[in-house]
Amino acid sequence: MVDVGGQKTERRKWIHCFENVTAILFIASLSEYDQVSSEDGITNRMQDSLQLFEAITCNQFLIKAATLLFLNKTDIFADKIAYSPLKLCFPDYTGLNNYEEASIYILDQFRSCLSGNRSFYHHLTNATDTKNVEVVFAASMNTILNKTLSGIGMY
């Protein structure tokens, strides 16, 4: 597993290193929909995550990789959505400002970035909830193992 987080200027330096990757684990913070990037003070963090997600999943080196999306910080998002409308990030959003509708809408935004017929798995996570992390980790490892075995003809 390789963490490739970092500044936008660094992204183009590592993307070519991932040819034949089995799975992409992409983690985005649900709670950052109303925040801007610390790099430029303008770019919405959720929009930036969506753009990066699309760039990674459409990249020629990663086109066959299964995609696992973790939408993290569900606890903070659930509290914040009640007083900070999702329209701040998504002006076209017409749903209620509640956890259920807003999280589904955000998930759909990520899902719409995918192209082709690729394996896609998603989890809503709270990294401070150890039970949630255990369940999600086990499911993710199972997905990666199955994809790897399938790739070598053993599943």
From TrEMBL:
Pfam families in UniProt: G-alpha
GO cellular component, one term: heterotrimeric G-protein complex
Organism per entry: Romanomermis culicivorax (Nematode worm)
Keyword Signal set for record: no
Superkingdom: Eukaryota
GO molecular function list: G protein-coupled receptor binding; G-protein beta/gamma-subunit complex binding; GTP binding; GTPase activity; metal ion binding
Keywords: GTP-binding, Lipoprotein, Magnesium, Metal-binding, Myristate, Nucleotide-binding, Palmitate, Transducer
GO biological process: adenylate cyclase-modulating G protein-coupled receptor signaling pathway
Identification of the protein by name: Uncharacterized protein
Residues annotated for GTP binding in this entry: D3, V4, G5, G6, Q7, N72, K73, T74, D75, A127
